[in-house]
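Hypothesis: this fold can be encoded by more than one sequence.
Test: take the structure tokens below, design a sequence, compare later.
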């Protein structure tokens, strides 16, 4: 059955980081036609109503229809410790993160948190995400089962740690990391809308043997993404140097063990040496920018414009619970603020691109999600651009779509999410 959703429609025809607002398409009175979980057509409302006269219509009025948001780096097990006070990265992991991750030894706990996480993500308009789990296979099972039950396109992997730097209870071995990751990969990768991601937490919590084992697993499954953390804080980089004295730099601790490639997604990548930057560009790796996390934990200012100009694929991410919000709107606002501190004003079209089409490119999903175009999977959201009195009074003065959208980017939250469709089915 064909159905129509009416509203303002925002989509992308090109890379907005390279081409700015000209890359976006805006239909002031538009429509999206859905059929069997996919987008059949996008265009002016009048044209689509004439083409599909029998299709039932959901008229969202002047709400803005967009592809659902894609969160390219999140730790769903940290849902309950979001907004924990007063620490920088290494202390923050030891004080808040690791004790919470230990609780995922209990599958019932994993199941409860996975449900809460998906409730929150969808309420904020996030329809796809790439998550770290914990060392426990049950944490991966809980995440994928919940995603599958809701029909969400989701990616995740078992977080591997085997060094004494990780606490007892959250440590495996090189062999266990390989075996358990492989078993989960074989069970979940490509099942329905799910993908497995090979996930060493980061080089300070893995031995060279474990990195090598996960590098081998990736070589056996090159279509999988590999995600890890890179150059988040200056203290962390010094720590990596002390643990890997032979390494040329932080990226080299991955490169040496087969964990550098075109399907790699590195979180943060704030303090890169010129060699690291050159190698990332050369292999076509991608970067997940986590601006609320970078300011919250005091990590530094990611160079969004510079990375994109160098040809790197970049997507936005909450990094919950190091990040301080589940909202990709708040994440866009933080990305804008961080770029401002580096002297660059990212255009609203670029911020939106980084949270949708650009994020999909980062996760190699650009043929499936992240845009409103014929053939794409029907994951979309409707935005209320006047969701609070403060936003409404500013948007009322807007003279174009970007002026109308920017107050929601800067001040909006889950109250702005007026509708969410996942695989063509309306969730809220
Ligand atoms: Zn992270």
């Amino acid at each position: 059955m064909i159905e129509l959703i009416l509203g303002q429609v925002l989509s992308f025809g090109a890379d907005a980081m390279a081409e700015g607002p000209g890359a976006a398409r805006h239909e002031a009175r538009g429509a999206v036609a859905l059929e069997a979980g996919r987008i059949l057509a996008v265009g002016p409302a009048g044209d689509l109503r004439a083409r599909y006269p029998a299709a039932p219509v959901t008229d969202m009025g002047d709400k803005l229809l967009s592809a659902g948001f894609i969160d390219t780096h999140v730790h769903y097990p940290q849902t309950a410790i979001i907004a924990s006070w007063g620490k920088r990265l290494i202390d923050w992991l030891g004080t808040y993160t690791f004790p919470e991750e230990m609780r995922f030894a209990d599958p019932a706990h994993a199941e409860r948190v996975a449900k809460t996480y998906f409730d929150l993500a969808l309420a904020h308009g996030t329809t796809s995400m790439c998550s770290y789990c914990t060392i426990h296979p049950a944490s991966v099972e809980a995440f994928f089962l919940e995603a599958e039950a809701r029909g969400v396109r989701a990616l995740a992997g078992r977080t591997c740690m085997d060094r004494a730097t990780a606490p007892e209870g959250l440590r495996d071995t090189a062999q266990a990391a390989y075996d358990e990751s492989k078993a989960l990969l074989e069970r979940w990768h490509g099942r329905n809308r799910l993908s497995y991601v090979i996930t060493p937490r980061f080089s300070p919590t893995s031995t060279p043997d474990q990195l090598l084992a996960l590098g081998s697993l990736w070589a056996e499954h090159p279509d999988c993404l590999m995600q890890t953390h890179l150059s988040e804080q200056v203290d962390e980089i010094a720590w990596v140097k002390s643990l890997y004295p032979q390494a040329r730099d932080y990226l080299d601790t991955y490169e040496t063990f087969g964990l550098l490639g075109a399907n790699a997604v590195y979180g943060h990548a704030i303090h890169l040496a010129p060699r690291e930057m050159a190698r990332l560009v050369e292999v076509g790796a991608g970067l997940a920018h986590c601006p609320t996390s970078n300011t919250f934990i005091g990590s530094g200012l990611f160079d969004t414009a510079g990375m994109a100009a160098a040809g790197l694929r970049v997507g936005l991410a909450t990094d919950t619970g190091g990040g301080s919000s589940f909202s990709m709107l708040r994440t866009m606002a933080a990305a804008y603020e961080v770029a401002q501190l580096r002297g660059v004003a990212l255009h609203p079209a670029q911020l939106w691109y980084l949270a949708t089409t650009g994020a999909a490119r980062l996760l190699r999903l650009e043929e499936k999600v992240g845009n409103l175009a014929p053939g794409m999977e029907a994951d979309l959201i409707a935005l209320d651009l006047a969701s609070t009195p403060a936003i409404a009074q500013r948007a009322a003065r807007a003279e174009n779509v970007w002026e109308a959208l920017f107050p929601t980017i800067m001040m909006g939250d889950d109250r702005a999410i007026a509708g969410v469709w996942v695989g063509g089915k309306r969730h809220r």
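The pocket of zinc ion is lined by residues 73, 75, 229, 267, 319, 322 (CB under 6 Å). The mean pLDDT is 97.
Hypothesis status: open.
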